[in-house]
């Protein structure tokens, strides 16, 4: 009898950790009733919209196909150990795993679109700016490198003033149903007839995203969902409700240009400048340029293009000011230019082009299960090219695949080993990396650098 009692207790413990034990979110309107990214500067709703936009949600089955690989760390995904077992216990850990996304402070999250990250960068003093997460369950197909996602959870971290700060809060974790995912996907399909962000605005409105009671809210109405944080800017007309954008763009010879677009007209007489900083935490200004009367423009800067660089919009200091007044921050520059790795056809490996200190570099992701990759790739090489139209024998420089250096990578992608090569070819628009299996037998090429701008 004692054994039977213990056995029943054990089954109860296991059954308590099932997907069905979590509250479910079945429709967009249900998002109004939970505390998930629904008020500035939280980013959870924006993150969920992006996730669906990058996914193919099956209309008949409860599976999701994606154009990214969570196990590879794309867009900041990281392995979630589930050590506290508050998520359903995996029945086959060799084929199943949990991964989370949403920590914008991580370098490999910098590939997320600006509409997801802008609140984070422009609410530095808020403890809520980086709390939202999405957790997915990834299932690997038997005898194949194909995978699918079959569970999606939305959750948040405990607040910073809590003794469990930076840990997942089980009491604010919800299972997202496929009905909700399909509803968001339908909204996106319908909205693309107009513009990419139109669907986001509609989604945020339906989900009850709350805006701060700022003066511009009365003018911009729902449009102010994007533009909460224009400090010291007196927005007077709907014309000022624009998608202000600041970013780093590649220039020639490994350098960069600061770019700005759609600055509110009401600030153009306030002596505005764009300035370049090493990263989001830096106070060291590397360069600055006046914007004059140009609401959109670029400024060439002789600073080597590398990861983390950030453009900020400042008001020039007057005789009475100690320093410039910060208005807005762009995202930190993603060294891969927001391009995920390209798969090597037929192999458990992928290739990524990125910039470091002004030079073109290559990164190989090799699955740990691909144990004999050095034998298979013994005669393989990666070439760097100045343009997409060049023949394979017209490379600028190359490196043997087996000579790439193993990188000390985060434990967040245990399914992959990462190897890098830093060339001496200056990064510039059009540069490309290609993987040759042998001689000029190409199996993969990256997109031409800067082709997505």
From TrEMBL:
Keyword terms, alphabetized: Signal
Signal peptide from the UniProt entry: 1-21
Record PANTHER family: PTHR38706:SF2, SI:CH211-198C19.1-RELATED
Name of the protein described by the UniProt record: Uncharacterized protein
Lineage: Eukaryota, Metazoa, Chordata, Craniata, Vertebrata
């Amino acid at each position: 009898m004692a054994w039977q009692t213990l056995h029943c207790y054990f089954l109860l413990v296991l059954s308590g950790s099932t997907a069905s034990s979590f509250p479910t979110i079945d429709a967009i309107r249900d998002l109004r009733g939970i505390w998930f990214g629904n008020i500035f500067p939280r980013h959870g709703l924006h993150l969920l919209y992006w996730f669906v936009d990058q996914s193919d949600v099956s209309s008949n089955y409860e599976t999701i196909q994606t154009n990214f690989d969570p196990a590879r760390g794309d867009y900041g995904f990281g392995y979630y150990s589930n050590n506290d077992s508050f998520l359903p216990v995996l029945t086959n850990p060799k084929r199943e795993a949990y991964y989370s996304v949403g920590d914008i402070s991580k370098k490999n999250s910098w590939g997320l679109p600006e509409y997801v990250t802008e609140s984070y960068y422009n609410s530095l003093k808020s403890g809520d700016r980086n709390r939202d997460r999405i957790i997915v369950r990834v299932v690997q197909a038997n005898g194949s490198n194909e995978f699918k996602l079959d569970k999606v959870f939305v959750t948040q971290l405990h607040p910073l003033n809590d003794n469990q700060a930076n840990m997942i809060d089980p009491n604010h974790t919800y299972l997202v149903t496929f009905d909700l995912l399909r509803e968001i996907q339908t909204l996106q399909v319908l909205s693309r007839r107009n513009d990419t962000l139109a669907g986001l605005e509609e989604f945020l409105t339906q989900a009850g995203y709350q805006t701060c009671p700022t003066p511009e809210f009365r003018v911009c109405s729902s449009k102010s969902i994007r533009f909460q944080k224009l400090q010291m800017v007196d927005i007077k007309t709907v014309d000022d409700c624009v998608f202000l954008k600041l970013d780093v763009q590649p220039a020639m010879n490994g350098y960069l240009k600061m770019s700005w677009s759609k600055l509110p007209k009401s600030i153009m007489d306030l002596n505005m400048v764009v300035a370049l900083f090493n990263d989001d935490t830096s106070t060291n200004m590397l360069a600055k340029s006046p914007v004059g009367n140009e609401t959109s423009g670029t400024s060439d800067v002789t600073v080597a293009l590398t990861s983390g660089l950030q453009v900020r919009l400042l008001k020039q200091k007057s005789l009475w000011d100690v320093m410039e007044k910060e208005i807005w921050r762009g995202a930190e520059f993603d060294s891969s230019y927001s391009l995920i790795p390209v798969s090597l056809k037929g192999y458990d490996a992928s290739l990524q082009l990125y910039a470091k200190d002004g030079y073109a570099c290559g990164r190989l992701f090799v699955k740990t299960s691909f144990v004999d990759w050095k034998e298979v790739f013994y005669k393989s090489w990666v070439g760097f090219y100045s343009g997409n139209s060049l023949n394979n024998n017209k490379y600028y420089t190359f490196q043997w695949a087996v000579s790439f250096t193993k990188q000390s990578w985060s434990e967040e992608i245990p399914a992959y080993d990462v190897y890098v090569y830093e060339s001496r070819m200056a990064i510039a628009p059009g540069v490309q990396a290609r993987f040759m299996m042998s001689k000029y037998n190409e199996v993969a090429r990256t997109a031409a650098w800067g082709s997505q701008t």
